[in-house]
Amino acid sequence: MEPERRPTPEELLAKIKAEARGKLTIFLGPSAGVGKTYAMLEAAQERLIAGFDVVIGWVETHGRRETEALLEGLPRIPARELEYKGKTFKEMDIDALLKRHPQLALVDELAHTNIKGSRHVRRFQDVEELLAAGIDVYTTLNIQHVESLNDVVAQITGIPVRETVPDRMLDEAAEIRLIDISADELVKRLQEGKVYVPERAQQAIQKFFRPGNINALRELTLRYAAQEVDRRLEQYREEHAIAGPWPVREVVLAALSPSPFSAQVARAAARLATGLRAPWIATYVETPGQQISRAASDQLSRNLRLAEELGAQIVALSGNDIAEEILALARRRNVTQIVIGQPLRKPISALWRTSIVDKVIKGSQGMSVYVIPGTARAREQPAPLAAAKHKTDIKPYIESFSIIALLTVISKVAQPYVHPVFDLTNMAILYILPVLYTAVRYGRGPSVFTAILAVSAYDFIFVPPFYTFAVSDLRYLFVFAVFLIVALSTGTLAGRLRTQAERARRREERTSVLYALSRQMAAETNMQKLLDTVVRAVYDAIGASAVIYMSDSTGNFKVQAATAESEKLATDRERAVAYWVYENGQFAGKGTETLSGADGLYVPLKSEQTKLGTLGALPADPERMTLPAQRRLLEGFAGLASLAIMRLQLAAEAQQSKYVAESEKLRTALFNSVSHDLRTPLASITGAVTSLQEEGVYDLESRQALVETIKEGARRMNHMIGNLLDTARLESGMLKLNKDWCDIQDIIGVALRRVSDTLKGRPMRVDIPTELPLVRVDFTLVEQVVVNLLCNAVKYSPPASKISIAVRKGDEEIQVSIGDQGSGISDEDKDKIFDKFYRLYSPEHISGTGLGLSICKGLVEVHGGHIWVDDAPEEGSVFTFTLPLDRQPTIKEPVEREGDDSAC
Amino acid sequence: MPAKGARILIVDDEEQIRRLLKVALGGHDYQIDEAASGQDGLRQAAIFHPDLIILDLSLPDLDGLSVLERIREWSQVPVIILTVQEHEDQKIKALDSGADDYITKPFSMGELLARIRVAMRHAADTEDEPVIILGDLSIDLAHRLVTLKGKELKLTPTEYDILKNLAVHSGRVLTHKQLLCEIWGKEYQNETHYLRVYIGQLRRKIEPDATRPRYIITEPGVGYRLVAKD
After folding, report:
1. Percent with pLDDT over 90 in chain A
2. Tell me: the pLDDT tens digits for A9-31?
């Protein structure tokens, strides 16, 4: 029997997520003029008639009458007007649309680029936001704007298209409607002027709309749509757990570089991955020897971002051997297809250097390698490695010059004396030392400089003919050559080693920064301190002023923690950006594609389900922020911070709910207490008083008994009220400790005096050693503990049984024990009896609030002591509490004073 | 109304308490006058010239403490403060501002009457008695001699000073501050632990059971009191 294949939780989750979002319908066509907008409006009209709330967000009719006729009856959100460079532009008003929140919004031209100053750079991002808000969207798209087909279209038509839409938009679309007409028809429509053509593009357009082109584009569109249908079928099978042919999973790996040509590699890999329905990885190998310019690093981050857009997972590597690193990653991740670009090398270097591509191919057992050749277009802008401008430090050159000069002088002076053993060749070897030294110390540049200098000095001074640069013996030319090779190779090697070490150190630093932060945060229990720790860590690690925006208790979204110089991140405008990030859970701000006009870069703080806040950073050097490594570090911080914030919030919530539950219990118990326990003594008082009012019924003795009843009832009520008040004070944290030096014997004495009525008829055994140290406590509170324990002892032991009090001195504490001869307490009750309202089961009803012992526990604990109960040696229980002992105060005898008594 | 009875002014805003005191104290031949507010109390004190005032600390208009201070501006009439248990600070303030004693609600009538008697006696006695006798304990102030059941007790000078101070005001509470100030001097008025140690020593010498003192009574958080002569 075939085992049932159920969808995995991830698959189900993805589906649930998709269902909460709005549904996207794309009207896809091979080119402009095929009637996408018309079809979209037609479909919208149908929905309108079906009773849906349809609103036009943006529609471009280009003045065509039959299209405009279809607008009838469809409400329209007025466009937003934006000023840019003195001109007024119209854009879709996304805020108004979100506010209006229709069931279906029509947004024409998905590939449109918004004017600067809009929320998002691209319209498809607007659409994503609408979808996220649960609004269905109808939109139109031409095939040439599909990211992964961008190159192919450019090849077909010869016209590069810049505005591309990531493939994931199409993947996520609930429906893709293909709008297609024949090439002849389209050309006819173009001639009839039915296709909108911007005037400035007349000529290009003529070239574009050739039947060959059109048909190629149509084929591409149809194929793409067919692929989509295929993919959907697969998805359906997954959702409904239909076991289909389950091929070995394909994984595509693309190797990217800082070259603009890498974008082609990324697109090719994305296409391949889509075709194979495989996940794909984009990697970039950092090599230690490499000097990467600012422009190149920008290009690299663009390439990586593009790959990310195209659905790749980015893996950054670092190592000496690019090919080996790529292969290692490929093996680790079970990659089946590698896509790599063939850089255009200068023909000479190709002769003696094995290219990375060759190495990869050689080592790619079991994997297919696709090599994408570099195109002429890409070669126009090679990664300007040469432009790498690192500051030239003049010091190494001066130093090597000095060394050579010194060496030359010494050698010259010493030459006559050592001549027999030290011939000219040996002298040459001596000159290698400074070359090596500068190579190791300063790298390639200075070492080559030193080598040239050394050769010149040697030639000039020691090689005949002397004091000219001319060389009479050709053997010396060989020496010079060796010199230069040594200098170059050692310099390069040493330099590379140094850079590698430097990089490793920096990486290590990043890791340790994150590790240190995570450890710091793990220990933090205070939210404010935690946030401060995070912003400080960002400041220390990437040299960026940082802020954290969070909602406070009143729902105000504001800065909760900030480093120095972060005022720029606290303006209203920045706050709005931070809020957008918080709401949408995505990056925004400088260096991103959303709200890039902001000063800071904002990263969401969020957990799986909860939005927490926004971490904002304002780097001293804004360009650096776009580097993937920096952003990843910031993301790392945000991730750690989110976890820690969640942890604290959950802890606080748990505490809160515990508190709520307890106060609920307290309220209920208080209710019972007031209604029952206080009424009992009140009833006895009222009864006794009304009896006494009847004159001549009771004799003197009975009247005395009634009066006693009243007195006892009043005493009990007073005691209960005291307990309730104490509990309230302990609970509310309003208890003020009035600590002073006290004599424990005195405290017990006062307590005994206070409960003397209750203790009447009880034999007492009091065992208090003399010369006890003083304790620093609140006299009345400790007295209350003793009183409660004594009352308890009386309550839970048979009448006339003995009660004992004992005090013992320990090393760091004083122990007070109060024992009774009651029925004892079972082991399981021994902890619970200190809980509020916990009362032991007893055969006869024993009145009380059940608060006495919990008050004792609270009061003892605020003094830093403990309280517990043991079984008494014979029968009954012994309650013991401790009070910590402090260093004893000094006691002074009064001095004889004369006549200044008036001061008192 | 018996003319011989001392006159007592009750200043309390609670009618129940006033009625109770009026009946109970009236039964003991005291003449009672009442005031329901601080202002009224001050006026009555001036007109009625009471021999003793019972003053509640929580009054609706004026704070009981300021009523006390204003009375003390022109009169040394004994004042007993009525207060609730928790307010130690208020008690101490009132005692240090010239109140003669205090009593905590809820109180027993016997206790109140004893306090009234002590306060009246101290107000009446202008001469120091040479010998104070409290049960088995006798304190001869003239000869600095303390005996228990006729046997002489050896007290250190400080212990004697404390006992003397308490004995002179026997029945009345003395605050820690008052005692420390009197014996050690003003700069030691907060060193409560001096008293704890010396009172402990003193008790071990004069009390039959130091845990259940018969003579020196601790008023928690306030001070000490030597029991009254009767």
Report:
1. 10
2. 555 556 555 557 888 999 988 88
Mean predicted confidence (pLDDT) in A758-775: 89
A471: left (phi over 0), alpha (psi -120 to 50) or beta: beta
Instruction: Identify the CA nearest to B77 among candidates B31, B117, B45.
Output: B45
Strands A557-562 and A544-551: antiparallel
- List the domain range (segments joined by +) for residue B187: 131-226
User: Which of B90, B97, B159, B211 to mutate against chain A (most A CBs within 10 Å)?
Assistant: B211
CB of B136 less than 8 A from some CB of A: no
A370 touches chain B (CB under 8 A): no
Interface of A with B in 743-782 (CB under 8 A): 743, 745-746, 748-750, 752-753, 766, 768, 770, 774, 779-780
A161, A145 Cβ separation under 8 angstroms: yes
Last residue of a domain, one of B100, B124, B148: B124
Q: Which residues of A touch B85 (CB under 8 A)?
A: 722
Q: 3-class SS at A864?
A: coil
* Residue finishing a domain among B78, B99, B124: B124
Query: Which segments within A497-537 are labelled E, that is strand?
Result: none
Given a cut of 80, is residue A387 above it in pLDDT? no
Beta carbons of B88 and A738 less than 8 Å apart: yes
Q: What is the DSSP letter of A128?
A: H
Integer Cα distance of B103 and B54 in angstroms: 10
- Strands A601-606 and A368-373 turn out to be unpaired
Question: Are residues B72 and B155 located together in one domain of the fold?
Answer: no
DSSP A148: G
Q: Return the amino acid letter for A296.
A: A
Residue A755 CA: distances (Å) to CA of A716, A750, A763, A786, B210: 11, 9, 14, 10, 17
Q: Which residue has the higher pLDDT, A457 or B202?
A: B202
| Mutate which: A715, A745, A755, A901, vs B, most B CBs within 10 A | A745
Could you tell me if residue A761 is left (phi over 0), alpha (psi between -120 and 50 degrees) or otherwise beta? left
Residue A869 pairs with which residues in a beta bridge? A879
Q: Given pLDDT bands bounded at 50, 70 and 90, which one contains residue A384?
A: very low
Do B117 and B168 have their domain in common? no
End-to-end CA distance of chain A: 102
Chain B: residue nearest A903 by CA?
Answer: B186
Residues of B in contact with A774 (CB under 8 A): 193, 196-197
Q: Identical fold at A9-239 and A252-344+352-376?
A: yes
Cβ contact A894–B186 (<8 Å): no
Strand segments (E) across A599-728: 601-606, 611-619
Name the class of domain A9-239: alpha beta
Superfamily of domain A252-344+352-376: HUPs (3.40.50.620)
H/E element, A745: helix A744-754
- Check if the beta carbon of residue A44 is closer than 8 Å to that of residue A106: yes
Using one digit for the tens of pLDDT, what is the confidence trace for B79-128? 999 887 667 888 888 998 889 999 988 888 888 999 999 998 888 765 56
For the cut 90, the answer to whether the pLDDT of residue A522 exceeds it is no
Domain spanning A736-884: CATH 2.60.120.200: no
A718 has a chain B CB within 8 A of its CB: yes
B104 and chain A in contact, CB less than 8 A: no
ipTM above 0.85, yes or no: yes
Give the pLDDT score at A245: 39
The 3-state DSSP class for residue A91 equals strand
Alpha-carbon distance values, A690 to A459, A696, A697, A710, B27 (Å): 132, 13, 12, 11, 22
Q: CATH says A524-647 is which class? A: alpha beta
CA distances from A377 to A213, A230, A296, A374 (A): 21, 34, 17, 8
Locate A247 and state its tokens: 């091929």
How many folded domains does chain B comprise?
Answer: 2
